[in-house]
Amino acid sequence: MARGTAGAARHTHVDQGPRRLAGHPTRKGSLALRDAPPATSNGVVPERLRRAGAIVVGKSTLPEFAIEGYTANELTGVTRNPWNEAYSPGGSSGGSAAALAAGLVGVATATDGGGSIRIPASLCGLVGIKPTNGMVGRWPAPDWIDYSTDGPFATASDDLRLLYDVMIGPTPGDPSSPHSRWRARWSASRAVASGSSRPSEPRPGSPTGLGGAGPARRRRGLRPPHGRGRRMARPRGLLSRR
């Protein structure tokens, strides 16, 4: 494993390198940013996860500025695939994928512009998706806004859905986020789906929060955030094993 990839027990999470995480520098795998100071605030996704009860244990490594399909850079070295160290975990979100595949964390976040979630997921035996742009609000918006978006990694589909439910939502200032009328409708229906009397971010212990992966979540089954659609079969993932 490359240096800088944090790990801990299940119910924990590792955040991919380009996003701000309070108390940690954002070096983006580059020697040019090796002296970057620790961030004073969280990015959109880390903040949503912490509010939902996730234990964010650290940041993972990536190729310099997240522009390669493998994970290696002059700052943290070469990241190897836990299944076979002779191979790469892919990229650019290879640090998150390697940490998850090695069992260091229960779930992980990533970004994807041209395959940076899909490539490591396929090479490390994980499940991951690149969400439609705008589903996970971004701020500040990345330079390559038409392509890059945040997304989840997991070892099972139910963990993936649980993490995705926490991550999604519009963000003011992101031009790809839905317009205000859709945002209001989304927030209201999200509150209904989570059993809340008013729109809010997922909270610890709620069915849509990472703290709610217990009996309440299992009784409800999995539903889309808008509350429609069929119930899905629930395979047993790391976060649901009690």
Would you write up a description of this structure?
By secondary structure, this protein is α/β, with parallel strands linked by helices. It has a domain at 12-177: Alpha-Beta Complex (Amidase signature (AS) enzymes). 23% of the residues lie in helices and 11% in strands. The chain contains 6 helices and 7 strands; from the N terminus they run E-H-E-E-E-H-E-H-E-E-H-H-H. It has helices at residues 44-51, 94-101, 118-124, 157-167, 180-194, 215-220, and strands spanning 12-15, 55-59, 72-73, 77-78, 107-112, 127-128, 149-154. The strands form 2 sheets. The protein has a 5-stranded mixed β-sheet with strand order 2-1-5-7-6, with helices on both faces. Strands 3-4 form a two-stranded antiparallel ribbon. Strand 3 (72-73) and strand 4 form a beta hairpin. The protein is globular and about 50 Å long. Mean pLDDT is 76; it is low at 1-11, 196-209 and 211-235.
Keywords:
242 residues; disordered N terminus; globular; Amidase signature (AS) enzymes; two-stranded antiparallel ribbon; 7 strands; alpha/beta
